[in-house]
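User: structure tokens for Spondin-2, please.
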Amino acid sequence: MDTTKNILSISEALYHLIVMMLTLGQGFHSMPVPTDIPMCTASETAQYRLTFTGKWNQAAFPKQYPVYRPPAQWSNLIGVTHSSDYHMWQRNEFASNGVREFAEKGEAWTIMKEVETAGERIQSVYGILSAPAVVGGTGQMNTEFEVFARHSYLSFIVRIVPSPDWFVGVDTVDLCDGDHWKDNVSLELFPYDAGTDSGFTFSSPNFETIPQDKITQITASFPSHPANSFSSPRLKQLPPIAKVTLTKIKKTNQIMSLPVEPTQSNQLPTGNEIEDKLINTPLDCEVSVWSPWGLCKSKCGDSGVQHRTRYVLMHPANNGAACPLLEEERKCFPDNCL
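Assistant: Done. Predicted tokens:
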């Protein structure tokens, strides 16, 4: 139980860290490097909801299924929206130091710095997204994010806990189709080995892979060592261990219907009267719920400041109520100071 609580605390801290970095440096607005890949020509940005669903249960993955110290679970999700010339990770390529630390230990500092550097150096990254950890092999985590034409791709990574260096994720999924955004994208996820630790089982001790291997997909027959926790020679392929669904959020600034007010003559209004009501109806600004509070930034013993943000769902129209503040800050004191 103590181990699980520690993992929860680490996951929550990482999640707040990512939210803070997203708040402080939201969006790397830039021009992508030209490529031969067809460019997205969608004229507007799009908002998506990401739903990650764990499917890691003992019935589907009975071999050495971890039930304690710690039990099967998922780390927080770290993702980016980007252009086609950037890769957070790639199958059959070497993992970066950031991917290595996250896949082995769930530590996100280095991978976040790599994302920031890519945004500044090759101008490929637009935004960072995250979702909190899932306590258990099954369960869901959700987050929302924005994409636009020059950076229409999504990549993310989620660590399998416990494991030597195993993870699931997606690499460069395009959410744009020509001049419009895809309404739904659903992908089944399978385990990957980061190629940095040579353990075969979920609870293997740290045993560095020297020299480092490339990222490979774990299958029922690969690695072929019989001790491997996913080894299932009788199966042609492993069942998906997780699933991700990406759903385009419909805009809410369109009025679908308007109640008809009764008139003194008990006659229904004409078509022109209804059109006038639609045109002249005030539309108040609508905003999302607040993000979690970011980390408290200050020296130990001193008071600091933490922030949270929200975004506009619908802009005001026809003299509707203006939008409220989209960022808040409050005083705080850092935790866990030494």
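User: Anything notable?

Assistant: The first strand starts at residue 46 and ends at 55.
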